[in-house]
Amino acid sequence: xxxxxxxxxxxxxxxxxxxxxxxxxxxxxxxxxxxxxxxxxxxxxxxxxxxxxxxxxxxxxxxxxxxxxxxxxxxxxxxxxxxxxxxxxxxxxxxxxxxxxxxxxxxxxxxxxxxxxxxxxxxxxxxxxxxxxxxxxxxxxxxxxxxxxxxxxxxxxxxxxxxxxxxxxxxxxxxxxxxxxxxxxxxxxxxxxxxxxxxxxxxxxxxxxxxxxxxxxxxxxxxxxxxxxxxxxxxxxxxxxxxxxxxxxxxxxxxxxxxxxxxxxxxxxxxxxxxxxxxxxxxxxxxxxxxxxxxxxxxxxxxxxxxxxxxxxxxxxxxxxxxxx
Length: 325
Ligand code: AHG
Ligand code: MN
Ligand code: MN
What we know:
Elements: H1 5-13, H2 21-42, E1 52-56, E2 62-64, H3 65-79, E3 84-89, E4 96-97, E5 107-115, E6 126-134, H4 142-147, E7 156-162, E8 166-171, E9 176-182, E10 187-192, E11 203-205, H5 216-226, E12 235-236, H6 242-252, E13 255-258, H7 271-284, E14 288-290, E15 310-313, H8 315-322
Parallel strand pairs: 3-5, 11-12, 11-13
Antiparallel strand pairs: 1-2, 3-4, 5-6, 6-7, 7-8, 8-9, 9-10, 13-15, 14-15
One manganese (II) ion binds at residues 112, 115, 242, 274.
């Protein structure tokens, strides 16, 4: 008998304090938006959806048409959920708030609507990343306070990877579960029960073109891996879509790094909607995620689009990095 993500969420939400049907209704908004995006990606080459949208996002990066579509799908589907008080997107400079005095919006959701979008035109995996907080703890400091919470406060986090198959991976703090979209029934079906990240892997993943800019401890760490200091040979794999590089690391082990570079002195990846959700998943799967000076999930956010250096992977690789950080 199949277990759909809706069924799984209903079971999970009983373990989330205070979550009622609103939480599963909220997550169904995310799954619906990702199915809309998935169907658009599948036909990208046949419709006028490849290429740039002509705008720049808040990061100063050229928006791809699918960035805009994926963002609009999430804004639309989540905006209809009464339990949503505030949304933060990579594609929006400011948080989007909903005046829900009556329903008392309970949740804040931050997301990267389309991750790895530079890979769209060459038919390489892309993804969607999301992170969910409860607002209650922060309403006195308003909506900005509701989203500028430490990663440890996440109620749930997940990503969808659009690839040969489309998979949704998520955690609510009780393990990591993977669901594969079955196109025949249009449902995400449980395919990976309780995912565990291998303690020790044999792949490292980093954009080596920036290696001369990396701080010395990163360069030394990578050299030690190449010199088999962990007792085994490493291969290098870099897809350039964070979700894809992370998904491989989650399933196969090893380590992914986006260090500080000349172009991105604090690293390129964003804390709220890239590093935090993936760090939550990594830790829940038995792995680890650090910024070089401590755990990602302990960083006190100060800006919704702030960037952090990001090292995530199996405990052995990350512990070894921290002894060299
Ligand atoms: P996004 O498409 O959401 O802007 O994210 C792109 C990120 C991430 O997916 C990937 O790990 C990284 O950019 C790759 O950066 P480089 O091309 O500098 O290696
Ligand atoms: Mn991204
Ligand atoms: Mn993006």
